[in-house]
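Quick start: read one record
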Amino acid sequence: QVQLVESGGGLVQAGGSLRLSCAPSGRTDRIYGMGWFRQAPGKERESVAAISWSGSGTYYSNSVKGRFTISRDNAKNTVYLQMNSLKPEDTAVYSCAVRTNFGLGTTWYIGARYDYWGQGTQVTVSS
């Protein structure tokens, strides 16, 4: 089992920045990758970004590329999602998830491939 604790959500004005954190615990030796997903009210869950557990590969959706950065602090065993130039359309509940299977590079955006999920954190961007 892997448990995930997210933090860092909040309210920010358009153009501002937030940093989300996700700290896994438990069987972290089984993790191959971590992803961030978001879901806005009335919309389907959307992939945002992912990172291989080695840190060698990062992946982004077109909607956030160039504005968001996913990274991992090995010493703290924590993954961050730095969100800059935030837009009102970024408003959503953001959730981190980990997967214990291969193939992150080709399927990072598929939520069903992730095995454990955090509780989600609200990000609200005002215009």
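The chain is about 5% helix and 50% strand.
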